[in-house]
Design goal:
globular, six-stranded mixed β-sheet, 40% strand, 166 residues, alpha+beta
Length: 166
C-alpha cells in the first residue's frame, strides 16, 4: 500500500515538475537586398505548438510526422500567419512558409519569406501567436540589420509594436 501511495505521489510530483507556467515564441527577421524580400524564422515550443494546432482543428499529433504533408503545412502557415502579421512601411506583408524543422531541444523553427518588398523603414508587428489559448504566452521579435538589431516584446496586454529601422 505504501508503494502505491509513494508511486502516486511521485507521478503527481513529476507531472507538476514537467508543467510550465510561461510560454515563449520568438521571431527573427532580416532583409535580403538581393532578392528584395524579408526572410524570417518563427521559433516555438513544439509541445505547445502541437496543442495549439489541435485547438485550431488541425490534425497535428507529432510535428515530425507532417514534414512532407504540403496541404497540412499550408494550413499550419495560415494559422501561424493569422497571429503573426507584419506591415512594412504601412503595407501588410504576405508570408510564404518555406518549411520547418523540429529541433532536439523541444523547439520547432518555421522558415518563411515575404513577397518582394522595399527595405524596411518602419515595421508594424502584431505577434499574438497562441495568446488566446495560452494567456501566459510571451513573444519576442528581433529584426537584424547589417549593423544593428532591433527587438520588441509582446504579451497578452501588448500584442502590437513598431520597430523603426534607422
Amino acid at each position: 500500500m505504501k508503494f502505491i501511495l509513494l508511486l502516486g505521489l511521485a507521478l503527481f510530483s513529476f507531472e507538476k515538475v514537467q508543467a510550465h507556467e510561461y510560454f515563449f515564441g520568438f521571431a527573427e527577421l532580416s532583409y535580403n537586398s538581393e532578392q528584395e524580400i524579408i526572410e524570417g524564422t518563427l521559433m516555438v515550443s513544439t509541445h505547445d505548438l502541437e496543442e495549439w494546432f489541435q485547438s485550431k482543428k488541425l490534425p497535428v499529433k507529432e510535428m515530425e510526422d507532417h514534414v512532407g504533408d504540403i496541404k497540412l503545412q499550408q494550413d499550419m502557415a495560415s494559422a501561424l500567419f493569422s497571429e503573426f502579421k507584419v506591415k512594412n512601411n504601412g503595407t501588410l506583408l504576405k508570408f510564404e512558409l518555406i518549411g520547418y524543422e523540429v529541433l532536439p531541444n523541444g523547439m520547432t523553427n518555421f522558415y518563411f519569406h515575404s513577397s518582394i518588398t522595399k527595405k524596411p523603414g518602419k515595421l508594424d508587428i502584431t505577434f499574438d501567436l497562441m495568446m488566446n489559448e495560452l494567456p501566459a504566452q510571451q513573444n519576442k521579435i528581433t529584426y537584424l540589420d547589417k549593423e544593428k538589431s532591433y527587438t520588441s516584446f509582446f504579451t497578452k496586454q501588448k500584442r502590437q509594436s513598431s520597430i523603426i529601422i534607422e
